[in-house]
Design brief:
By secondary structure, this protein is mainly β. The chain contains five helices and 19 strands. Strands 5-6-7-8-19-16-15-10-13-12 form a ten-stranded antiparallel sheet, with helices on one face. It has a six-stranded antiparallel sheet with strand order 4-9-18-17-14-11, with no helix packed on it. Pfam families: DUF6786.
C-alpha cells in the first residue's frame, strides 16, 4: 500500500508539472514580458486576447479565445527571443514584397539568387518599430526603412501599422454571420500604409514594392480551404519548393485543399484572377476554424515565390500559403506591386478570425463563408 501511495504521488506530481509548463497563451505572455515591452489587447470579457511586441517589428505574437489559460494560436520560436539572428515567428507580421525574382529583397545582392542565400533584411527581422499610439482596442506603430533589391535598386519608405482587436459585433458585421453563444472567438485586423520617401517615382523596370501580411501557426491536422474564383483549376495554382502530391494538395469542386502539418516544406500561390478575398483553415482535432479576409484589389501585378531570375516577375499570387518542415505553417496575403511617386501611398489590410465550437456549428460558418461542408475536407490517403 505504501508503494502504491508513492507511485500515485509521483504520477500526480508529473501531471502537475506538465500542467504548469503547458505552452498556452499565458506561458508566452510571461515569457515575452520578462524580456521586452508588450502590448495586450483584450475583448469579450477577457476571453479574447492578442499579444503584440513593438520590439519584434510590431508583430502579433499570438492570440487566444479562452482567456489567459487558453491555447496559443500563433507559432513562436523561443530561440528568437534571445538570438536576433533567428526569427521569433508570430501570428502576424508585415514584410515587404517581392519575395522571389531579381527584384526580391530577401537575397540582398548575394549571388547566385538561391535558397541557400536567403537573408531577411534587418529592418524586417531584428529592428523594432516605434509605438506611437495605443488604447484598449488598437495600437499604431511606424518604421522608416531603407531596402535594396537583388539588382541593386534602393528604396526609402515609411510604413504605418495599425493593429485592432475585433469585438463580436464587428466580426458579425464584417463576415455577415451570427455567432452562437457557445462559439469561442478571437479576431484582429492589421491595417498598413506604405509611403514612398524617395524624391523620384518607383519604376517597374527597376522593381516595385508591395505590402505582405503573413502569420505563423503550429503544424497540426489543419487543412487550408480556398474557394477559387473564375472556375479555377489545379493547373492554375502556382506551386513551389517541392512536389506536392494528392495527399497534400487537391482541388475539389473549385476549392483548394492544402494540408499544413508543418512536416513537409512546400508552398502554393493563388494568382489574383482566381483568388477570393476570403479563405479558411480547419483543424478537426482542435475544433477550430480560422478565417482569413484581406483587401483584394483588381490590380494584376503581384510578386511570386519563385527563387530565380524571371522573365515575368510581376505574375504572382494574391494568396501565398507556406507549409514548413519545422512544425509551422503560414497563412498570408499579398497586396499588388505599385508604382508610387514621391509622397504617394499604398495600403493593405488583413483580418484573421479564429472560431472554436462543435463541428456542427463550425460547419455552418464554413458553409456560409467558404461554401464547403467540413465533412468534405478530405485529402487522398497514402
Amino acid at each position: 500500500m505504501k508503494h502504491l501511495f508513492y507511485i500515485l504521488f509521483f504520477f500526480l506530481f508529473i501531471i502537475s508539472c506538465s500542467s504548469s509548463t503547458k505552452k498556452n497563451y499565458n506561458y508566452y505572455y510571461n515569457l515575452v514580458k520578462d524580456q521586452h515591452e508588450i502590448v495586450e489587447l483584450v475583448s469579450n470579457g477577457g476571453n479574447s486576447r492578442i499579444l503584440i511586441s513593438p520590439f519584434h517589428q510590431g508583430r502579433i505574437l499570438t492570440s487566444t479565445y479562452n482567456n489567459v489559460e487558453g491555447i496559443s494560436n500563433g507559432w513562436i520560436n523561443e530561440e528568437g527571443l534571445t538570438d536576433l539572428n533567428k526569427s521569433i515567428g508570430g501570428e502576424e507580421r508585415l514584410w515587404i514584397g517581392p519575395l522571389g525574382s531579381q527584384f526580391s529583397f530577401y537575397f540582398q545582392q548575394i549571388e547566385p539568387i538561391h535558397d541557400d542565400n536567403w537573408k531577411v533584411p534587418s529592418t524586417m527581422e531584428s529592428e523594432p518599430y516605434t509605438l506611437i499610439y495605443k488604447d484598449e482596442n488598437h495600437v499604431e506603430l511606424s518604421k522608416s526603412m531603407n531596402l535594396t533589391n537583388f539588382v541593386g535598386t534602393e528604396f526609402n519608405l515609411e510604413v504605418h501599422r495599425k493593429i485592432s482587436i475585433l469585438r463580436q459585433e464587428i466580426i458579425q458585421k464584417n463576415l455577415n454571420i451570427k455567432l452562437k453563444n457557445s462559439t469561442k472567438h478571437v479576431a484582429f485586423e492589421t491595417n498598413h500604409k506604405l509611403t514612398n520617401l524617395d524624391t523620384t517615382a518607383w519604376v517597374k523596370e527597376k522593381g516595385l514594392l508591395g505590402l505582405w501580411s503573413a502569420g505563423m501557426y503550429p503544424g497540426d491536422d489543419s487543412v487550408v480551404i480556398i474557394p477559387l474564383k473564375n472556375d479555377g483549376k489545379k493547373p492554375d495554382i502556382l506551386t513551389y519548393l517541392a512536389t506536392i502530391d494528392s495527399t497534400r494538395f487537391i482541388v475539389k469542386k473549385n476549392t483548394v485543399l492544402f494540408k499544413v502539418d508543418g512536416k513537409y516544406r512546400s508552398k502554393i500561390g493563388i494568382p489574383p484572377e482566381f483568388a477570393p478575398n476570403i479563405y479558411g483553415c480547419y483543424s478537426k482535432s482542435k475544433n477550430k476554424l480560422t478565417i482569413v479576409e484581406y483587401k483584394k484589389e483588381n490590380d494584376l501585378w503581384y510578386s511570386n515565390s519563385f527563387v530565380s531570375i524571371q522573365e515575368e516577375p510581376f505574375q504572382g499570387e494574391a494568396i501565398p500559403i507556406y507549409n514548413n518542415s519545422e512544425n509551422f505553417y503560414e497563412l498570408e496575403s499579398n497586396a499588388p506591386l505599385k508604382i508610387l511617386s514621391h509622397g504617394e501611398t499604398t495600403s493593405h489590410w488583413h483580418r484573421v478570425y479564429h472560431f472554436s465550437d462543435s463541428s456542427e456549428k463550425l460547419n455552418k460558418i464554413s458553409q456560409s463563408l467558404l461554401h464547403i461542408d467540413l465533412n468534405d475536407i478530405k485529402l487522398n490517403a497514402n
